[in-house]
Amino acid sequence: MSYRWPQDPEELFAERYPQMLATGLPAAGVDAVRATITDMWADTAGGWVHEWSRLAAGYADAARHDLAALAYGWAKFPTLADDRKRAALADQVEQYRLAAPGFPVDFHREVLDLPYRGRSTAVPVHLLATPGLAADAPVLLASGGVDSWKMDVHNVLVRFAQRARVRVLAFDIAGTGESEVPMTPDGGAEIVDGLIAHARALGNGTVAHLGISMGGYYSARSGLTGQVDAAIDLGGPVEAAFTRGRETVFGMSDILGNALGFAHRPTDAELGRHLPEFSLRSLLDQDRNAPMLVLNGADDVHVPQHDTLVFTGRRETEVDLVPDTGHCAVSKAAEVWPSMIEWLVRTLDR
């Protein structure tokens, strides 16, 4: 189920432009589509999907499948609200797989069949590892968030694979990307539990979990329950972000509405009945957790500072609220990502 909503595309460019460049797209290409797009949903010239897909097709024709995959990633952004967006995701998968032989890491794609609410669900995953990595290396579960998914954060995952010497198992959280089920507190967590169990058998039994944005919600849960051996939560909502009636910006309430499985634009009351169920307060009240690193930008407009600072003083937990940057500290990625990798190496070497 999905739906469209009124959205000014320029607002998304204003917010996400640094992220678009950080993923590796040339500024000239991003600037060109920004100058052309006038409508979020029209499947014609000037429409978001149309113009991003045209840029991607040009990269594909030039055999730059890596750039084509990134551009198709923005074509389907921020959610699969219609058939054209879903087609862009399929195009992204195709171009990503064509680009794989040029990756600096080994790549393997498979579809897992994982438990889900008394039945099972298909979960496509990507495995990334440096060539020659030992079979008994630790495994790092990794996901993006509610609108940026496993292929969209490829460059980040490659850095972890190369520098932390881990096998990265990338997936899309429930309700996003290639997931077949909506995002719910219990169902989404059950899928992560299945991934953790699968990862235990892939290497030496050591499993860490990296979650970005809404993915950080699930890595925070994995860390708080102690199901993994280390957890990194970058910009994850855990409590205050789910407060009933809290205002959202840049279409986030509708992005969440799509992830939750609504077929219509939910009212504030409808969202207010669902979002508080995600709160991790019961786990935060327990005095246990795996080693954790929790960080975010101090100026995040999506996730309140509370959801980072609430981890201050916990056992085996480092907290970093990075000044002068926003959601997931994107504008300070050059300093934040190396510190995360260093923390992971140090923690897994204990």
CATH superfamily of the largest domain: Alpha/Beta hydrolase fold, catalytic domain
Mean pLDDT: 96
Secondary structure category: alpha/beta
Straight-line N-to-C gap: 45 Å
Number of strands: 8
CATH architecture of the largest domain: 3-Layer(aba) Sandwich
Number of domains: 2
**Strand arrangement in the largest pleated sheet:** 1-2-4-3-5-6-7-8
Number of helices: 13
Helix content: 40-55%
Top CATH class of the largest domain = Alpha Beta
Q: Which geometry do the CA atoms define?
A: globular
Gyration radius, rounded: 19 Å
Beta-sheet strand percentage?
15-25%
Could you tell me the CATH topology label of the largest domain. Rossmann fold
* SSE run: HHHHHEEEHEHEHEHHHEHEH
**Main beta sheet strand tally, sense and closure:** 8 strands, mixed
Low-confidence stretches: none
